[in-house]
Amino acid sequence: MFKFETVSREGKARAGKLTTPHGIVNTPAFLPVGTQASVKALSSEDLKDIGCQIVLGSTYHLYLRPGVDVIQKMGGLHQFMNWDGPMLTDSGGFQVFSLGFGVEHGVGKMVPLFGGEMVLGEMLDTEVTALARRTKLAKVEEEGPTFQSHLDGTSHFFPPEKSIEAQVKIGADLIVALDELTSPLHDYNYTKVSLERTNRWEKRSLKFFKSHKDHKVNRQEIFGVVQGGPFEDLRIGSAKFVSDNDFFGVAVGGALVNNETMLKILDWIYPELDPQKPRHLLGIGTVPEIFAGVERGMDMFDAVVPTRLGRMGHILIKVMGCETKEKGREEGMKNVWRVYNKQRYAYDITKEVFAMDPAPLDPHCSCYTCTHYTRAYVHHLFRARELLAYRLASVHNVQFVVDLMREIREAIAAKRFAKLKENWVQYSE
Amino acid sequence: MFKFETVSREGKARAGKLTTPHGIVNTPAFLPVGTQASVKALSSEDLKDIGCQIVLGSTYHLYLRPGVDVIQKMGGLHQFMNWDGPMLTDSGGFQVFSLGFGVEHGVGKMVPLFGGEMVLGEMLDTEVTALARRTKLAKVEEEGPTFQSHLDGTSHFFPPEKSIEAQVKIGADLIVALDELTSPLHDYNYTKVSLERTNRWEKRSLKFFKSHKDHKVNRQEIFGVVQGGPFEDLRIGSAKFVSDNDFFGVAVGGALVNNETMLKILDWIYPELDPQKPRHLLGIGTVPEIFAGVERGMDMFDAVVPTRLGRMGHILIKVMGCETKEKGREEGMKNVWRVYNKQRYAYDITKEVFAMDPAPLDPHCSCYTCTHYTRAYVHHLFRARELLAYRLASVHNVQFVVDLMREIREAIAAKRFAKLKENWVQYSE
Q1: Any idea what DSSP says for residue A256?
Q2: Are the CB atoms for B173 and B182 separated by under 8 Å?
Q3: What pLDDT score does A18 carry?
Q4: Which of A74, A75, A355 has the CB atom closest to B66's CB atom?
Q5: Cα torsion for B249, B252, B253, B257, to the nearest 10°?
Q6: B255 vs chain A: nearest CA distance in angstroms?
Q7: Domains along chain B?
Q8: How close, in Å, is residue A166 to chain B by CA atoms?
Q9: B73: which chain A residues are within 8 Å (Cβ-Cβ)?
Q10: Dihedral sign of CA atoms A189, A191, A192, A196 in order
């Protein structure tokens, strides 16, 4: 029922076909993040209309609310959120880290929010307080991590077996072994100790999963995780470990290192990765990162970036490469060019310049928003804080990334991925 | 291009057909309120899928943001919000009142919000402050009212001619003459003086509209408004005035009086109303009010009730009448019955009892939400404050009222409206 095949390649980049009990995923693929059983502001039907093939759920969040028993009793996450396509859940490791060293070291998930732009409904009071006080809300011991819920402060012991049990009950096609993330502020010694513990956790995850009664029906498969911070020998060792053990796929963690380091890590581990196994780069999803990941053999990506940017009014669009700066001045692109953020591949629709702009968000896009509404209207909805704004912008941004992945797959098949990459990232690098 | 015909009747109740340049409205009809060019949380396509035939826009809100010039330049409100069906705009009179005596007397639009449940994004700081201080933000003089924007405090002189000019530019099929609302705390003398002024404003509205160059193309028609507070002779006089003048339709204002008084008013004015003209009961939209209005010859209703209740998690449903209290205990209704609010015809989906309820919001409903999602899921979305919650609940609640109106029309055609009413309102009255 599970299968991964490479259908074409160009250098390390490869296009593949991942078969799951809920359907096929063409890779390289992007997974929108449905943290709380909902890709924020979108319905499952919106995602289908966009052409999205696979969605990610967050075990930490679902475990706390509504609880895995609720999801299991409602027939599993597929049925609960009415998504009948493939699905992957993460292990909860990233959130445990965010509550622990993430808070203490001031890195990770909560920091960009705390310091930067606030996003509707994402930052909770308890998180703000913890961050302000730098009080760790999680600790890590050999048996497993213990964290405090960001919702009500209750304490939860969350060993690998509990993460896997939760993921089995949630019922996504693909699940992930529990790991410990390390912070960029951790030294070599801590990272090494942590990685060795992560390996033991991953083995326990694997063992528990393989012996789980529900596994026998072959409805789920498990990914191991590569950690090891920014240290070459640790990363290589970790990649070997995951390749050598009976994991269906490989997830690469540690998205918190800087971009340059992430590229080095992907180069280091590439020779160690089993070419038979699909590879997921966790928590990564900007345009340059996706290109860099695909170029280094990655097959799957997930990130909240497109939907979070959407809710802030940042509209993803390409006005570079195939359209030169001159061509970018074509009718319908003038205003975009004026306020374009090249690093983000986005423009801010809330800017005054769009108040009377009759063009769709992106004249080259075929998404629901672009085929039904104007920039002027979406601009107004954001200014008036109408709820429809968040949906329309999120629809477009997810469509943008889903379309990008299709373009990448077609380019690899035609051996012109390198050209496509050059075309997309020449201005931003 | 404009026509109103009665197609069947039962007592004073009547089913009709209202023809506009953008299509036909079967009456009695309910108009969801798109205050700021968006029916909150819904897209125009959502409204079409629901079977909604006509939408209301708020001139006051659109005048302030995005501004009527923006809407006109974007092709009018139909094109701006991608709604190609019939549309009505109100005059702004109700909002001017809310900012004026509404604040001073502590009645009207803002009060239930201020004192009661807060609704996402509806209450603004300036409004709260004004209400707390009881500082009027509008004054009324013979030439016209002047109000302060709730957005930025700027002062706006808003005579009848300006309201009509705005409504012509906005471009709804049906527009409304400018009136002054009175508060239930106003005495006979003030109400009489106010009504006489309202009559002069309505004449000015009509004159300005009829002489407006854009009117000649016959793309809009105008409603007069019946005011006069709770006073019989004033209401009768006002109804005569509107009937005798060349208004296409009659709007009945003053939704702030209590229900009992409103019924009396409708009884008083009925003999004076021109049967050729469609009749809109402004700002009214609960189930008992709709039945009472239809019973007294009203053809159109508008209210934010269904969408506002939806955003608070209150799900409209009928568990009375055709289903007896016993039958209400059928599978799928048990939980609803336990927490049912008979006055509201609604239950609160955020209650714990729905955490694992696998039924749709209403097992008898065919809306998008009920055919795709469970109560457990919608409950979770509200608990987790996911944006999708507001859309799913609003879709259902608007569908509920649109379906109710269809049922009412069919009942009138079959001469069983009285029976239908009894069936619906026996428990709540």
Answers
A1: T
A2: no
A3: 98
A4: A355
A5: 180
A6: 25
A7: 3-303 (3.20.20.105), 310-419 (no CATH)
A8: 17
A9: 356
A10: positive
Top residue of A65, A386, A396 to mutate, by most chain B CBs within 10 Å, is A386
Peptide bond just before B28 cis, omega within 30 deg: yes
B-chain CB neighbours of A374 within 8 Å are 74, 80
Q: Tell me if chain A has a CB within 8 Å of the CB of B37.
A: yes
| Tokens 């568990």 belong to residue | B319
Distance from CA of B24 to the nearest CA of A (A): 22
Positions of chain B with pLDDT lower than 70, given as ranges: 108-133, 214-217, 320-330, 426-429
Chain A residues with CB inside 8 Å of B386's CB? 36-38, 40, 121
Contact A377 B45 (CB under 8 A): no
Biggest CA-to-CA distance, chain A:
61
Please give the DSSP secondary-structure letter assigned to residue B394: H
- Give pLDDT tens digits for A68-118: 999 999 999 999 999 999 999 999 999 988 888 888 887 765 444 333 333
Q: Sign (positive/negative) of CA torsion B93, B94, B98, B101?
A: positive
Across the interface, do A356 and B70 touch by the CB < 8 Å criterion?
A: yes
Tell me, what's the pLDDT at B111? 42
Report ipTM for this prediction: 0.94
d(CA A161, CA A158): 8
Query: Model confidence over A190-233: pLDDT tens digits?
Result: 999 999 999 999 999 999 999 987 666 679 999 999 999 999 99
Reported as a pLDDT band with limits 50, 70 and 90, residue A142 is very high
Distance of CA A208 to the CA centre of its chain: 25
- Within 10 A of A268 (CB to CB), how many other CB atoms are there? 19
Q: Tell me the two tokens of residue A43.
A: 């319905």
DSSP secondary structure letters along B243-267: HHTT-SEEEE--TTS-HHHHHHHHH
Answer whether A385 sits within 8 Å of B121, measured CB to CB: yes
Distance CA(B6)–CA(B113), nearest Å, equals: 38
